[in-house]
Amino acid sequence: MSVKKPSRRNFMAAAAALGMGCQAGGFAAEAGAEAAKPVSKAVKVEGTVASGYESVREAFAAAQADDPGGAQLCVYRHGKAVVDLWCGRDNANNRPFTSETVTVIFSAAKGMVSTCLHMLAERGLVDIDAPVSRYWPEFAANGKEHIPVSSLLSHTSGLPWFPPDSGIQMLGLIDWERCISALAAMKPLWTPETAYQYHSATHGYLIGEVVRRVSGKSIGHFLADEIAKPLGLSSWIGFLNLPNGQQAISLAGIAEADETYFLESQKGRRQGLSRAPRKRGGKSQ
Questions:
Q1: pTM value?
Q2: In this predicted structure, what is the pLDDT of residue 259?
Q3: Three-state DSSP class for residue 37
Q4: Of the residues 7, 51, 55, 107, which is catalytic?
């Protein structure tokens, strides 16, 4: 199947909307950390590990031995970086993969967007037991008027994918208004809160739109203002103030693979769910 490759910027924007994020490495390890040495001729691991964590460096090198690209690994214990490693190359841009290479962290950003919503709840601006429609009136369509905010957080709302008739594919994910409109109009695939399925493609939109309606900020701006800046994190959702000259890894090849998977998955969903949602007891529905 011939698939048009999206630009790096478009894919990164789509990744952000899906509930993915971007992060740069480069954390300082605790004092006395040992400099990482090449473990094998195949993989040169850069960075540091604290005493007692040498086996992590070895495992990291072994895991990356057959990887033609690059990777980063940073582990904190009791607030201190005990592992800060990187290796490989950013082949798309023909440069080393360093501690400062910006990379997509994929669904780890689901925790980030959920934290943003919990911050609003902590401030008394969102009641997670209240209907989503209190904050996002259009969401009430097609029998969703009673779905609580908590259902979005727990992946039980019955909206794990965009409806096939929406026509939303990979490049369509960068159109926020189109995506949230499709979800607002969608009929749940099961009775909400009776079953769960990982909302891999929609979590960022569902949570992000509630955050936007309540705070007046996009999920990217909220994260930047309320979490990243105060904590000094090199982490973004979307293209907000990336450091001058900083470039993200080219992900056109991954985007093409994901586009193929996305199309095939949507095709399967025309005949029903590819994987049955799980009941609140562990059995398939």
A1: 0.72
A2: 43
A3: coil
A4: 107
